[in-house]
Amino acid sequence: MGQDGAVLTPARIEEELRQRGCPWPAPIHHLAVTPSTNDWLKERARAGVPAWTVVVADEQTAGRGRHGRRWHSQPGDLMMSVLVRPPAAAPWLTLLPLAAGLSVAEAADSFGLSPALKWPNDVVVAQPRPEGEYRKLAGVLVEGVTEGVTSAAVVGVGVNVVPVEVPDIGGQATALRTHARVEVERDTLAAAVLARLAVWYDALARGEADGVLAAWTARALPWWGRTVEVRSGEIALRGTARGLDGRGALLLEVAEGDVTAVLSGEARQVRVR
């Protein structure tokens, strides 16, 4: 139960999906409390549950983001994981975060927002002043499930729904209800995200990665042609953002004519005086 008293139920999510013309092909599970929806679903993926199995939770006690960082969530936020079983030949683990982030952004549109996308996995709300500032609305964590080789992937989605109260986020987060122009219910939000994820996943399955990348780029923060730093652990790479390659890697021009493709890391714009 969220802090507003609304109960998140699989039946309501399934009904929302049917109304959107997207009847769901696998079970949707609901947990009151779990350490991590990704971990819960990864364990069941190894046991053979079908593709598109979904789990939503009211509370996570050990949610995490990329690079093992803790994901702060509150009762009333959307915490959801989805199992997919993509073909092994395609670069799915690098394109899925982009497709999932795009799906969340499009779902937020229906509540009156027009969020932007920050490479590789953040959904943000841009702030008009100071120019270039933004606050994080949602994040995506895609993890492979291995059985000798990667045979499945779990797409974890965390959306801040209720106004953020966690003090150590550092003022960089925001919430859907802070900006929404209509009432936000988690059932509706979950269904909207799943419906859009199914669309973009099908596009990838048809070999239409270019369409996914184009749609993602159209929503991206306007960093193209600007100096960006990508940090992974203690390693930092700085250059001019030139776009994405076919795998979803960020292309950085680190010297004139010398372009490096970066597949993962924490990106930020650098303001050069």
Protein described:
With 273 residues, the protein is of the alpha+beta class. It contains 6 helices and 12 strands. 27% of the residues lie in helices and 31% in strands. The strands form 2 sheets. It has a 7-stranded mixed sheet, with helices on both faces. A 5-stranded antiparallel sheet has the order 11-10-9-8-12, with no helix packed on it. A hairpin with a 2-residue loop joins strand 10 and strand 11. The protein is globular. The protein starts with 9 loop residues before the first helix and ends with a strand.
Topology:
Layout: H1 10-19, E1 28-34, H2 37-46, E2 54-60, E3 78-84, H3 92-109, E4 116-118, E5 122-126, E6 134-147, E7 149-159, H4 176-179, H5 186-205, H6 209-219, E8 227-232, E9 235-244, E10 250-255, E11 258-262, E12 266-269
Parallel strand pairs: 1-2
Antiparallel strand pairs: 2-3, 3-7, 4-5, 5-6, 6-7, 8-9, 8-12, 9-10, 10-11
Helix pairs in contact: 1-5, 3-5, 3-6
Count every helix, treating DSSP H or I runs of 4 or more residues as helices: 6
CATH architecture label name of the largest domain: 2-Layer Sandwich
- Order of helices and strands, N to C? HEHEEHEEEEHHHEEEEE
Indicate the CATH class of the largest domain.
Alpha Beta
- What share of the residues lie within helices? 25-40%
Number of strands: 12
> Sheet bearing the most strands, described?
7 strands, mixed
Helix and strand content put the structural class at alpha+beta
Shape: globular
Main sheet strand line-up: 1-2-3-7-6-5-4
Tally of domains: 2
Q: Could you say what the CATH topology of the largest domain is called?
A: BirA Bifunctional Protein, domain 2
The proportion of residues in beta strands is: 25-35%
Low-confidence stretches: 1-5
Please give the radius of gyration in angstroms.
18 Å
Name of the CATH superfamily of the largest domain: Bira Bifunctional Protein, Domain 2
Distance between the termini: 49 Å
Task: Provide mean pLDDT, rounded.
Answer: 88
